[in-house]
Amino acid sequence: MKHMIESINSGKQNFVFLGEAGSGKSELSLNYAMKLALLGDKPVHFFDMDMTKPLFRSRSCLKEAEEQGIVFHYEEQFMDAPTLVGGVLKLLRDEEVYVVMDVGGDYIGARSIGGFFSELNREYTSVYYVLNAFRPWSANIQHIDGTLGKILEVSKVMVDNVRLVNNPNLGPSTTVEDFKKGCDQIEENVSPYKSIDFACVNESLYDEAKDLVSVEVMPLKLFLAYPW
Hints:
By secondary structure, the chain is of the alpha/beta class. The chain has nine helices and eight strands. Strands 3-2-4-1-5-6-7-8 form an eight-stranded parallel sheet, sandwiched between helices. β7, α9 (206-209) and β8 form a beta-alpha-beta unit. The two termini are 31 Å apart.
């Protein structure tokens, strides 16, 4: 798995995760940060940029992240007042650290990173758009294009700089069959326009799933699966 992160990393220093609510981007961004931390070559800074959603935020896993040596950044909020964490731009420009950003769902949340567009479009930044075939706005190419277009408009990220991640899941109940079905559906929808960088699956299914698709598969530990 260390080899996979190094190959996906490919000289990048910043990793930004965008996607509709429920796509699994918070789970993915947490896992990605922890795998970067295991490389041990640079400090990892994690920014929870979700300003409004009360549940399923990466900040819920603050303790687990800090136990891995990750420096965790987020801003407390008053009621539903949107607040933006500081210090982002300085660290995006720092070659001596990795930065992972979990950006709040859809185009409303993506507004929070519009001010950093100059760094987000640099060659050392990877911007990942997380697709989940089982979410309504990844169901077909029209929905994907519409949602992604709005996100890019407000974030000012250039479409050529966006990399796609396949994360077909239905939560803890996801099966290998669900994974394969979701990957095939997204591949069919987007392959005429853009390639998939990698796919993700619950770590408990990884051994069964890793050879079912043509891209690399990243196993995910589920940090945000609440018992209810």
